[in-house]
Every structure is written in structure tokens, then in C-alpha cells.
Amino acid sequence: MSELASLFNPQSVAIIGASATPGKIGNAILQNMIDSGYKGELYPINPKEEEILGYTCYPSVAEIPGEVEMAVLAVPARFVLPVAKECGEKGVKHLIGITAGFRETGKEGAQKEQELLEVCNEYGMRLVGPNCLGIADTHTPMDATFMADFPLKGRIAFISQSGALCASILDWSLDRGIGFSKFISLGNKADLNEADFILDAAADPNSSVIFCYIEDVADGDRFMQVCSEVSRSKPVVVLKSGTSSAGAQAASSHTGALAGSDRAYDTAFRQSGILRAYSMEEFFNYAAAFSYLPIPKGDRVAIVTNSGGPGIICTDSIEANGLTVARFSRETTEALRENLPPEANIYDPVDLIGDADKGRYLFALDRVLADDNVDAVVVMYTPVAVLSPEEVADAVITMRDKYPEKPVAVVLLGGAAVHDAADILEEAEIPCYFTPEPAVRSIAGLVRYSNMMDKAESPVVMDFSDVDRDKVREVFDSVKADNRVVLLGNEASAVAEAYGIPVAPIRLATSREDAANSADELGYPVVMKVASPYIVHKTDIGGVRLNLSSREEVEESFVEIMENVHRYLPDTPVNGVEVQKMMPPGTEIIIGMSQDVQFGPMLMFGLGGIYVNLLQDVAFRLVNGLTVAEVDNMIQETKAFNLLKGYRGDRPKDIKVVKETIARVAQLVWDFREITEMDINPLFAYDEGKGMAALDVKITLS
Amino acid sequence: MSELASLFNPQSVAIIGASATPGKIGNAILQNMIDSGYKGELYPINPKEEEILGYTCYPSVAEIPGEVEMAVLAVPARFVLPVAKECGEKGVKHLIGITAGFRETGKEGAQKEQELLEVCNEYGMRLVGPNCLGIADTHTPMDATFMADFPLKGRIAFISQSGALCASILDWSLDRGIGFSKFISLGNKADLNEADFILDAAADPNSSVIFCYIEDVADGDRFMQVCSEVSRSKPVVVLKSGTSSAGAQAASSHTGALAGSDRAYDTAFRQSGILRAYSMEEFFNYAAAFSYLPIPKGDRVAIVTNSGGPGIICTDSIEANGLTVARFSRETTEALRENLPPEANIYDPVDLIGDADKGRYLFALDRVLADDNVDAVVVMYTPVAVLSPEEVADAVITMRDKYPEKPVAVVLLGGAAVHDAADILEEAEIPCYFTPEPAVRSIAGLVRYSNMMDKAESPVVMDFSDVDRDKVREVFDSVKADNRVVLLGNEASAVAEAYGIPVAPIRLATSREDAANSADELGYPVVMKVASPYIVHKTDIGGVRLNLSSREEVEESFVEIMENVHRYLPDTPVNGVEVQKMMPPGTEIIIGMSQDVQFGPMLMFGLGGIYVNLLQDVAFRLVNGLTVAEVDNMIQETKAFNLLKGYRGDRPKDIKVVKETIARVAQLVWDFREITEMDINPLFAYDEGKGMAALDVKITLS
Question: Is residue B522 part of a domain?
Fold first, then answer.
């Protein structure tokens, strides 16, 4: 039982600010409560009235004779605080803050909202809103909103951060016959937010699917944790707006530049098993599909049509959406061949041709739905004189009832001629579309959910015990003591090494002799680079020397590099020269990390080298809850994976060490949240068993 | 005046196979002709009837007293040939072949169709179909089809290869109030095809936009030539199915593997100025947008809404579709600030907030539409109590009438509550949608067309006079004499050289001494590769030696290579060893060519090297009519362009020579259509002024 269960099924409700004047919000809410058929006690509160809409009116909550479980606040903003306190004193458990004029109006409003929250906390009351449309439950039933209509009874729990979207979805749903279990307007989310309601809907036996429109999340970690849990048992579909407005962050690292804020949301949704709708249309289409259809077992779709052209268009759409055109069993094909006219197409898409009657649809659907190689079916109908769309609808309903475990969607290609049939289908809870693409996209949504469900649980990656936290702390402390945020190459390498990330050995040399000694220690050949957090393009100023194979060359290079730097950048502080063992070339990859405001550290993996930004062959994962399976997926999403597998006869690379290195980077940035950006690029991957070597590690602290 | 004009406006029409029995096709066509209000002479032909539907019936065309301009053939297939001959004798100009049973049924039918075509040619008759629904013209008016309804009068010429799609589009259009000038069912396209009707519609003053559904084109060259011409004056929108079925060709070259058949169609559409609809939805949405809205001058879209959330969703969609969110002038912003409530958003998207009335919509639309920084407007409405959708529709109509030169689309977010307003808008020829994305996509279609119109005409690239055709002919002849289709490296290089394509100098050596002499001539260092059309992976069998810097090394290598080949592939014919001058490294690009069955040679350009298939950073253009501007676009579409421009401080590469080389390859493959595949990869591009060098040229002949 959800701790919020009583919010949707209170024994008694007070409407504070109830009004006798039609058109006022306080009137609409009371009227909606009455019209919904709410069976508990209803107490309108208004000091100026004795009775409203047939209910005894009380001057204040305090004066209500019995207990009050929930109170709806529809008073002006200035009265909200004292009224809330009164509710607390009365022992009210839940407040629905309809009233606007809080955080959304600026600083002063935010302050008022904070005070309201404190009152709620003091008395242990939970708060919806403020600045919301209210909440409704069709099973209780209860309508504590001022919406124009009450939703139809159904199985979708709908949670929305936009009141406008509540109104639109409601109006649309009445038209399409789509029902809801709950309707929740989040408002300002001062207390209860999307995560609370998703969790509640998960426990609600009347809700079988959860739809959510959000503009942001209140708490990234909790949102992910809740959704990861809930999505295992119920589909969670999210429409999030603001995909583009933020744009790419202004950041100095590759990872930061490629990771936008929407990317973090997208990654968070994916990692927590949420199905994201990328448009309002898709959201609407998913609503019908998820509330009516079973989840398919696979992605093999059969088409049954009475016309060829639209059948081909549907086939195109199936492939474009990553689904598979079903290949029927021999029995199915034989049965179709024997019973359909010779001009018919007996392979997928099954074309019953223009003179098909209801019997032909029934026969073909029966055969196709019975085939184990078919996971879902799209039935198409083009208006013809010999067969009415109503007959097709009838055939589909019969066969859906016979095979309830396989999703069936219908495409009626036409306008007025097919309206009635569409109504019949929706009445029978079969989603109906007027062009093939949305039907296919809806099935693709079900398949995406099915794939997510199939994923086995997999251990979280962060469990290396051989890491040296003290060493990292020591380096960071010294960098901070130096008033820097960017680590020098040797410092960053030391940090990486402390976490078992394979790096090419590196030393910081401050003199000619020091450099030569370091090179002797490391072994030749070596590479030398000027060490300065202020110099970005080291090659351009003559600050880099490659392939040095003797003590003499190293000494000369030290002098040259120092002279070049002093000539080009005379006033730039320089810490010395980094001497690094020159590594044999390997497959160049990048592992990076940037911080997202909402979801914390996010890893990037992909093709490395100088063309990272050009090619953008990268995949992202949030570190929060990162699993072994996600690391595998992350690597496999990139083209770099093809290189690692051994491209065109090349030997396979050490993917095991690549995975481990990603996991070690994850642990490092999780342990030290002060790391704001990290780039390891290039990171050479060698043949299987030979490991990796990071050539350049960049770390920036907050 | 189009040569087909009289097809859509004949003085007299014979319906051959007219029937008195309702439900028969020959009855439906006559009834449709009558119902359409056709004003010419109508002659039903049926030897068994004296009168049908009030018209005198004739036993045959020959016996009609007056002239007959057009005949509709609705007789069984076996009667079609003699009847067609009779029509020819009578002097009929146009035949509409409704009858099925021709090419679509197999070989015998195809033969019958060929005979029918020959009869038409003999008598100078033009033929629509056979196996079609017929044709209709709403302006004539005339309905020579057996469709269930007559289209509304309008400005869209609709041409369809699928009869089913005709029926669906017609039914949908009646529902949405969309009108057509002509409705053409192409059928088997034995004579007249899509190109003929596109050309006719271009000349038709009643058609302002041309919509076409095709599954293939009858003649690629003519289709491109016609559409390139027509699309300059009227939008041509095409929906083509079968995008996926063909799949990638089985081909040995990079270019062949990356170029699928749909890629050729896509490229042909783009190069001939056709706007492609990628789904049936998009096709429908474009139909409303192109028949109602003016073409915008730019891509800057303003949003006027009464709710924030949907406004953000619309903004996301604008950016996702490559359009620009408009930035208003200071005057507009000031006017909005002064006249809208303080909570309103005065920047794009303009949020009039929930209590907006009609006056606020009128004011904001007036200001926004007057702003020179706005090219198109999306008006959004979320149902609220204070403002009806009909009032919003009214405000939009008023302002559209005041600013008829800017496209305005409306999004009414809701279901039943907004139906009436949607009808009002469509009646007023303002497209109306129920979610933001299709509205934005429709405007994006108008903008895409506008951009295509803006493209200046640019000269065709194939005009090099310094090419040596005889040399190429000579090489090809010798390859053919050798019974080969794959050219050796030195042969392919000679061909390239003959067309001024820069190649690294190469010689074929057949002995140790020969190799050493070649290397002396070319200058050191050199590269050596086994020369055999049968060995693909030359490195794997030890058939390649790099960086050879002396006569001795070359001689040794010759022996080694030959020994390796004999050891690993003892029975493979070997032509010798290629000695090639080793070139300094440059930016690696690829230029390739594959042949498309329908559209001829198609070029590919992109990032070269061993990762061509992995990265797939390539652009395609058909050689047919290839212009200088298209070569520029082709290069700019790829990421390789960023490298050529000088990536991250690198010097710019010799783009002029890159362009010229593409043009020279185009001319080569155009002059020699027997080249079925060509790959130049890698092709090194050097710094500006330094040109290029092709390292490997592969040519396959038919």
C-alpha cells in the first residue's frame, strides 16, 4: 500500500474557499467533487456562506465537526499560510494547493512557498502543488480539480507538470475513449513530485501504466532510483519538453561539449527503464497502445492488408522503426496459399487484394496470429465497395479476442468513410490509426518496453577495492593549495593510476638533468610536453617533442621547449616539462566525464583521437547506478566497438580492460564528486590480453 | 498549352463497356461522368442496351454519329485490343484503360499490354493505364473514374501509382475539405507515366501544386529532367514507397555497398527540386500546407500560445526540424511588453497566458505578423473557460487576411472541444493540427521548398576538353580482350590520368629488374603491391611492401612478394607487381561511383581510408545533370569538409582540386557508361595549391 493511497481515497475532504458562484474555481472544485460521485464527507469552507450546492458550509476547518483527511486550498495566496496551519491543527493529512502566486511569481513567492512547506512538515502534512489543477481518481471516484471534465475510468496514471497539458490530454482522451486511473497536476512540486506519484501509481492496482509530462525533475537521484524500480513492473512513459533550449554547455572538455542537458535526461530515462515519447503525437499514440495492448514477446510484425501500396508503406515503416517484418512458418504460408486467391501475396505483408471480404480477413488473421513467428499484427484497410470498414473492425475484434496475448493495431486508410469503424474499434480497446506510421511507431514503443523488461539485472560496476583514495585526495589537496582547478598531466596521471586506470608512465621534470634522469628511468623512446595548466595548444608553440631516443636528445629538447615557450608566451607560468614513455600505437578511444546539474556525473565513451568532435561517435551513461550490462551497451552503441572487435581482419582488442577502465573511471568520479570534468584521450587499446594505455588525462576540479 | 490538355477536357467521351447494372464498373464510370457535371458529349457503348442512365447507347464506337475525342475502356481484357483498334479507326485521341489483366498478371499480360501500346502508337492515341481507376478533373468538370466520390475543387494535381492510395486520399480529403484540380490513377503506365502528368500539371493554370505517389519511375532521365524544370515554378511533392525492401546492393566496392536503390531515388528527388514526403502523414500534412499557405521567405517561426508547456514543446519541434525560433524586433517586443500582462512571455514563444481573450490573440498576432523578423507563425490554443477555440479561429482568420503573405498554422490542443473551430479554420483554408509537431513539420516542408527555389542555377560540371577518351577506350579494350572486367591498378590509374584525375605514378613490373628500373624512374621511396585482379586482401598474403628506398630493396621485395603469393595462393594468376611512388600523407578522402538501374551513375564523396564503411561519412549525387553547386553541396554535407577546410588549426586543403576531381570523375563515368563501379580510395588531399594524389583506383566494367 502506497503511503499516498489515502491521498487518492480520503474519507473526508474540505474545500477551503468553496464558492456559490458558478465560474469561480472554488465552485468548480466542489461541483466536480459532487459530480464525480465521491462517497466520503464533503465540507465546503467559506465564512460568508451557510450552504453551497446543498452541502453545509463551515466558516473554517477548525469548526468542522468530524475529522478531515484532505483539504483543497482554493483561497487567495495571502490566506494560504494561516489556513494551512489551521489544517495542521485539525489533523488534516493532505493539502491540495490549487492557489497560485508562489515560486512561479519570483523571489517573494518562493519565500512564501518555503514557509508553506515548513508548515506542512511541522504538522506532517503532504502537499500537492501549490499552483496546480488538483488531482482526480476515477476508481475512488474523486475529482479534486477544477478541470472542465472528469476523465473516463481506465488504467493510465497521468502525471503532468503542465496544467495546460492536463486540459488538452483530458479533452483528447474523452474524444478517443481513453481512460485514466488517476490524473495529477504537479504544479510547483514544493513537496510531492513526479517520483512520489510514480511510486504511488506503481503500488496502485488500478494503474497499469504510468504517463508523465515533465519539464524538469525535482531530484535526479531519487527519480532514477524510483523509475528503475517501477519500470520493472509497469511501463513508465515520459514526455519531456525543453530538449533544445539549453543547448550544449560551454565547456572546455570534449565530453562537456558533446553532453547537453537533454542528453543527461535522455540517458537517465534510458538507464531507468523509462520509455521516452519524443513528441506529443507519440505520447498520445503510446497512451492508446499501452492502455489497450499486451506487451509483445518480440519485434516481428505481420501486416494484413487489402491493398498493395499501403502495405509497402507499412513495411517501410516497420524497417525504419527497427522492427522486423515477420517471416511466416511453412504451415502459415501453405494455408494462405491454399485459401487465398492466386493474386494475393501470401508472405508478409499479406495482401488479401481489393475484393477481400470479411471471411478472408478472418481467415488470414487467424492464421497469422497463430504463427509463432509473429509477435504483433497491423491490420490495414483501404475503403472498397465490397467490404465495409465495420466488417473489418468486426473481424479484428473476433481475432483479437481469440489471441489476446498478441498486440493488434488497425490502420483505416480514409476519412469520413472509416469514422464509425474507428469508433467501434476504440470501443473494443483496439487502437486505430489513419495512416500506417503511427500504428507502427506505437507497436515499436511496446517492443522497446519489452526489450527493456528483458534486460537481466546486472551488478553495479563500482566495487573496486584496490583503489587508493588517499593518493587522490593528496593530489587534489596540493592542486587546491596551488589555487588551481586544472591538474597538470603528471598529477592527472597519478590520480588515474591510483584508481588502476592504465596510463603511459609520466614524470614532471623541472631541469634538463631531471628530464634526462626521468627518461632513463622510463626507458626510451619518450615524448616531452611543456607542463602548464595555461597552455592548451602545446604543439603550436613548439611545446612538444616526440620520439626522443637518447639522454642527449632529451636534454636538448628540454632547452628547446623552454626557449620556445619563453619566446611565444613570455608571461605564462610554466611548471616544467612532462616526460612520458612513448607508447606503441593502438586503437584510439576516449573515455570522458562531465557533471550534470540534475543527474551528477555522466560518462562518455567512443572513438578517440583528434577527431572526437568531428566524428562524434560517442555514447553516454550516468554513473549513478551504472551496471555492467550498461557498460557493455555503452561500448556496443558506438562504431568504436567495431574497431575493438577487430575491424576487417584486425586482431580483437582488449575489450575486457576497456570495460574495466570505464568502470574504474566511474568509481573515481563517483568517489570524488569535486571532479567536474575529465577526458582521457587518446587511450590506446591494444590486442586482447595486452591492455590499454592512456596518453593524456585531463582533470578539472570544482 | 500542354499536349495532354484535351485529355482532361475532351469534347466527347465514349464509355466502352457502359453498363445499366449499378455496382458494375461500367455503370459507375458513366454515373460519375454524369454526376460530375461533364458538359461534352457522352456515349455509352454496349451492344446489348439501347439507353443507359438516359443516354443513347451505341453498339460500338464506330457507330457513334459524331466525333469521339476520348474513350474509356471498361470491357474485359480479351476485348481491349479490337476495341482499341476500332477507337483508332474512329479517330479517338485518348484511351483510358480501366481494364485490368495486363502486365500485372505476368508474361502473357505483359505481351497483351505491349500489343495495346502498339495499337495506340499506330493510331497516335495516348493511353492512360491500363489497370487504373481513371482520371478526373474538377475544373472541366469530368469524372472518368469509378471512385466512390468526386474530389472537391481545388489546386492540387494528384498523381498516384496505387489505386488504393487514390481511394484513401480522396476519402481523407473530403473529410478535411482539401480540394484537387486533377486526380490521376497511373495504373501500369504502359504509355503515359508520372513525368507526362507532372509536365501537364505544370502547364495547367488550375493546378498550383503537384502531389505524386509512386513505387518506381518509368524513365529516370526524363523524370529528373521534367521535375528539375517543373519544380522551379510549382512545388512537386512525392511519396515513394519501397524505401527499404531493396536493401544495399551486393557489390564489391565501397560506393556500391553504401549506395542503395532508395538512396538513388532520394538523390534524384533532391537534385530535381522535389520535396519528398517520408510518410503518409507527412504527405497528407503537406497537402493541406501547400494548397493553403504561401511559401515563406525564410525559416524564422514565431509561436503565439496561451500556455507555456505546449509552447516549449513547439519550440523543441522548431529546432528539431531545422527551423529558427524568431527573434522579434525591439518594436515588437516593446509593444508586447506594454500591452500584455506582466506574467506573459513577450519573446518567442509568446505566451499570452491562460486568461488570454480574443483581443489579446488579435493584438499579439498583429504585432508578430508585422515583424520583418518573422517568416511564419504557429498559433496554439489550449482549451480554457475564458476563451472559446472558435474565437481563436476567428482572430487567426482576421490576421491571416491582413497578412496573407505569411503562412499561419494553428494547433488546437484538444479533442471534441476543438472540432468545430478546426472546421472553421479549414473552411477558411488555414491548416489546423491537434499537436504541435505536424504543424511545425508542415511549415518545415514549405521552408524546404523555399530553399530549393532560392538556389541559383549553376552550370553543369561536365565540360573538360583536355580528356583523352582514346586512351581510356584503349585500356578498356585491352582489359576486355583479356576477358577481365576488373582493371589492374596501373590500368585504372592510366584511365584516371587520361581524365586529369591526379594519381600517384604507378608502373606494372613483370620482373625483378623491371621493378627496379620502374622505381628508378619514379624516384624513391616506393610502394610495391602484387598485381592481380583476383587478390583482394593483398596485405594478408604478404603481397605489399612499403617505404622501399633503394634499387636493392625493390629487387628483394619483388622476389619476396612473388614467393609469398605462390606460397599462399599457388593457383592464382598474377600479372606482376605494381611499383608506385610513395606519397606524403594527406587528408584521406574517397570518391566513388556506382550505377543505379533507374538513374545511371551516382557519385559518392566522403572521408576516405580504411574506415569508410565504419564511419559512413559520405554524400551522394547523380551524375545526370550534376551542377557545380551540387558538387559544392555534396562536399559540404560531409564531415570530411571540416577536415578540408582546415580542422583545428590545420591548413586548409586544396578544395578547388577536390571539386575539379569530382567533376572529372563525373565526366569519365558519364562518357563511359560501361564503368559499373569505381572507387578512388584513399585520395590524399594536400594543402591549398598542392593538389591531390590518388593512391588506389579501382574500376570495374560491365
Answer: yes
Residues A104 and A207 occupy one common structural domain: yes
User: A493 lies in a domain?
Assistant: no
Q: What is the 3-state secondary structure (H, E, C) of B370-427?
A: HCCCCCEEEEEECCECCECHHHHHHHHHHHHHHCCCCCEEEEECCCHHHHHHHHHHHH
Q: List the Cα angle A243/A248/A253 in 5-degree steps.
A: 145
According to DSSP, the residues that pair with B607 across neighbouring strands are B589
How would you classify residue B261: left for phi > 0, otherwise alpha for psi between -120 and 50, otherwise beta? alpha
Q: How confident is the model over A519-536, as a mean pLDDT?
A: 91
Mean pLDDT of A200-229: 93
Rounded to an integer, what distance in angstroms lies between the CA atom of residue A430 and that of residue A435?
Answer: 15
Q: Are residue A169 and residue A191 in the same domain, yes or no?
A: yes
**Which residue shows C-alpha cell 585500356?**
B475
> What's the pTM?
0.88
The model's pLDDT over B388-404, given as tens digits with 9 standing for 90+, comes to 999 999 999 999 999 99
Specify whether A525 is located in the same domain as A649: no
Q: Name the minimum distance, in Å, from the CA of A467 to any CA of chain B.
A: 36
Is B485 within 8 Å of B700 (Cβ atoms)? yes
Summarize the confidence of residues A133-145 as an average pLDDT: 97
Q: What is the C-alpha to C-alpha distance for residues A48 and A26, in angstroms, rounded to an integer?
A: 13
Q: Does B291 touch chain A (CB under 8 A)?
A: no
Within an 8 Å CB–CB cutoff, is residue B617 touching chain A? Answer: yes
CB A32, CB A150: distance < 8 Å? yes
ipTM of the complex: 0.85
Number of domain units in chain B: 5
Distance CA B134, CA B31 (A): 14
Q: How far is A315 from chain B (nearest CA, A)?
A: 8
Cell reading at B414? 484538444
For chain B, the first-to-last Cα distance in angstroms comes to: 43
- Report pLDDT digits (tens) over B209-252: 999 999 888 899 999 999 999 998 999 999 998 766 433 333 34
B521 close to B513: Cβ distance less than 8 angstroms: no
Q: Distance between CA atoms of A622 and A633, rounded to whole angstroms?
A: 13
Q: How far apart are CA B433 and CA B628, in angstroms?
A: 40
B604 to B491, B500, B531, B625: CA distances (angstroms) = 22, 18, 26, 15
Q: Which residue in the set A167, A319, A320 is minimally distant from B383, CB to CB? A: A167
- Closest CA–CA distance from residue B313 to any residue of chain A (Å): 5
**A431 lies in which domain range?**
293-454
DSSP structural state of residue B75: S
Amino acid at A694: A
Give the domain CATH number at A415.
3.40.50.261
A137 by DSSP, 3-state: which? strand
Cis peptide before A525 (omega within 30 of 0): yes
Residue A152 placed within a domain: yes
Residue of A nearest to B280 (CA): A435
Closest CB to B281 among A173, A437, A614: A437
Round to whole Å and give the CA distance between A145 and A447: 35
CB-based contact, B418 to chain A, within 8 Å? yes
Q: Which DSSP string corresponds to A13-53? A: EEEET--SSTTSHHHHHHHHHHHHT--SEEEEE-TT-SEET
Q: Write down the number of H helices and E strands in chain B.
A: 23, 30
* Residues forming beta bridges with residue A302, ordered by sequence position: A377
Cβ pair A302, A374 in contact under 8 A: yes
Instruction: Name the one residue in this structure whose C-alpha cell is 522579434.
Output: B328
Which residues make Cβ contacts (< 8 Å) with residue B556, sequence separation at least 6? none
Instruction: Return the ∠ at Cα A487 (arms to A481 and A493), rounded to 5°.
Output: 120
What residues form DSSP beta bridges with A95? Answer: A71, A127
Q: Give phi and psi for A544, each to the nearest 5.
A: -135, 135
